Predict the 3D structure of the following.
Amino acid sequence: MKTLFFFGTLRHAPLLDLVLGRATAPVAASLPGYRVVWAEGESFPMMIEAPGEQAEGIVLAGLSDDDVARLDFYEGAFAYRLVAVTAQTGAGPVEALVYMPHDAPWRPGAPWSLADWQARWGALTMIAAAEVMRAFGRMSAEDIGHRLPIIRARAQAQVSAAARRRPVTLSSPLTRDDVALDHYAIPYEKFFTVEEMRARYRRFDGSWGQTGDRAIFQVADAVTVLPYDPVQDRVMLIEQLRVGVYASGDPQPWLLEPIAGIVDAGESFEATAHREAMEEAHVELSALHHVAGYYPTPGGVAQYLVSYVGIAHLPDEAPRIGGIEGEGENIRNLLVGFKELVGMLEAGELVNAPLLLSVQWLMLNRDRLRG
């Protein structure tokens, strides 16, 4: 049996219980000679040496080999390893093990607060940790570490959705409380996930009906942005292979699109638009205009998109190839005059839904933007 000292996110009791798969009863403790700080630019803390100070935490005794294996799997995704320390409790010193960074690139940041972390990252981390621990025994910690960004992006999408509210005028007042799950399973979980569910729901007449078996493709929130230069009166389109179009049997699986990308954990829709414009097209946006926020295929895809038109300078010598090669992207950038763009829309050359919305919005607002 082992005793561990926890100084960071695993001090959050629901998270510790989730990782271990059982209820726990830790006791308060401290570790002399250390301080807990944020890992700079990250959503978790790290512990650094600090003579004369002490790191607050908890100790949990009686941990089995299986418990430690579960903890190793979870912490391994964050590049932590166990180190022996002597912690202080109300009953005296305790020999324990603590997870410390191992070959990690993080730099120490500001002092860390459990309460601040709970408010900012607690809900997201619980959702992501549940997916991580479902992979225990099926994947290595290294493999789950590679998937962690998209896992956290999906968790971010769920947190954002829970906070989303829209006006109710003609819409019915029905809510999530008017749905009851009878069956839920996750048969596939990798970069994307597939969920299966069967539910009862309240009908418009007040009675209850059944959905039947449903499969849901779980992605993550995403952003699209159409760069527009009001001086040159032209836009930048991107073109790339889309495997969904290929899988449908379409003989032309390369699509013209706006810039697009998944919203990372902790990132705003606006920040994603600026980041993706630089990554995919090397374009700096001076302003963003909101087109719409919407569910593109709500019958079977769990994803929320936000589309923008972004004001940018688009010179003749704008880069023509973009994307991140390490992510398998090969993106062609095209400068298209407004009149030609409208002609392509009317001819049916544009078939990407966010692009259609964005071009139609631009047609309505072009004079204002140019003025």
Q: What stands out?
A: The helical segments are 13-20, 65-76, 114-134, 141-163, 243-247, 269-281, 338-347, 353-370.
